[in-house]
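Reader question, answered in our methods column.
A reader sent in the components of a multi-part assembly and asked whether the whole thing could be modeled at once rather than chain by chain. We filled in our standard form and ran it. Here is what they sent:
COMPLEX SIZE: two components
ENTRIES:
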Amino acid sequence: MATVFIPTPLRKFTNNTAKVEAEGNNVSEVVKALTNSYPELKRHLVNADGRIPSFINIFVGDDDIRSLQQEQTPVKENSQISIVPAIAGGKPVSKL
Amino acid sequence: MNHEHIQFSREELSRYNRHIIIPEFGLEAQQKLKAAKVLVVGSGGLGSPVLLYLTAAGVGTIGIVDFDVVDDSNLQRQVLFGVTEVGQPKVEAAKRRLQSLNPHIKLNIYNTQLTSKNALSLIQEYDVVADGTDNFPTRYLVNDACVLLGKTNVYASIFQFEGQLSVFNYRHSNGAFGPNYRDLYATPPPAGLVPSCAEGGVLGVLPGILGSLQALEVIKVITGVGEVMSGRFYSFDALTFESRTFNIRRNPANPLNGDNPTLKELIDYEQFCGVRAVEKRIKEIDAIEFNDWQQRGEDFQLIDVREPHEYEIVNIGALLIPLGTVLANVDRIDRNRKVVVQCKTGNRSGKAIRELEEKFGFENLYNLKGGILGYIDDIKPELTKY
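And here is the structure of the entire assembly that came back:
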């Protein structure tokens, strides 16, 4: 199974686990397996069109899936998949 | 950045000795630092280490933009400041501290918020920008301004135990520019999806780590020593000590500098990031329907929120409660039947309705679309328009 690195902001949806295993032959299947195990992740990883939202980057190994085959990027048993959301630090947005 | 003419005093040579004796660095790199102008946006958690190290390293001109004042809750991570500076403008406190650290450099301070109006003229004056801001609208603003001006943007960002770093829009020796923030994140997350540090917290040492790396990259960009983090994206998890460096690329769909650029100037970034709350829709009635209600004797109250002098010019028999006095006169507004609120064009009455709904829970208010002017146009052209 591939290893998925969960970023800090999403760990509250994975019982505070930083690294989880998920089955799948490509990124899309891995994300599906992941959101089946952790349903609350879904609204952060899948947009209304069923795609990965543009404020989330997914890397397989060192490479951005946008420079590979997007959601269809193949995933191997030993692949390391990283989810990297946009973070900005600092202030609550409502106080701007 | 012409550095060949740069001279050093004896004090400076002594101060920078440990740089100059590194074979790959040498006097030339130190000259480049002294010739360079760096703008640091934000003097908080990230800005503190960036400013301290760039000042110590001898960057010749450093600009600091921040509109905030030092707060008690900053001191856990913003190592530029101490207890005696609480309540003072950050840029002024920062300048004093930094100038005492290195009197040989020039510090320009801007006690203001970076906005779409001032960003281009401010950034234009500098060679490199270090973005240590704390919110998405300013991230996109700094990025877009740097891309439009062809400046390098050394980026770092933090949240709780996680840090990110990259060098955006770096101009390679062949003239090509590296990826920028919009290649990585085409759109910001919806407001509220990613919690902020003020809500989610941040470990104080984390900005120290990322800000130091940011200072490192600024120095590499200026001196050309080493491999700049352009086209690469670094991610650090302080909890697991997991460090990963990813490859990133230009996106042909980037609206700033992709194949078909559509963004040629700065925009409203708060709106872009959905920060400005989308106004809740209120119930409306147009002049024709309003007239029908009157004709068929529908039971409703009519309220005019304009000023008395406007009411004198023309009115349609409404109860006058000027906008500024609406909340104080809330008991004069019916709750048990429909209420139509009108003004001159529909703006002020909309505002009154929003306030009444928000603060007093009214559900029976209708805004007269187009206001009294719309009513005159559609129903009673004989009335006075103003």
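What stands out: The radius of gyration of chain B is 28 Å. Residues 205-223 of chain B form the longest helix (19 residues).
Send us your own complexes using the same form.
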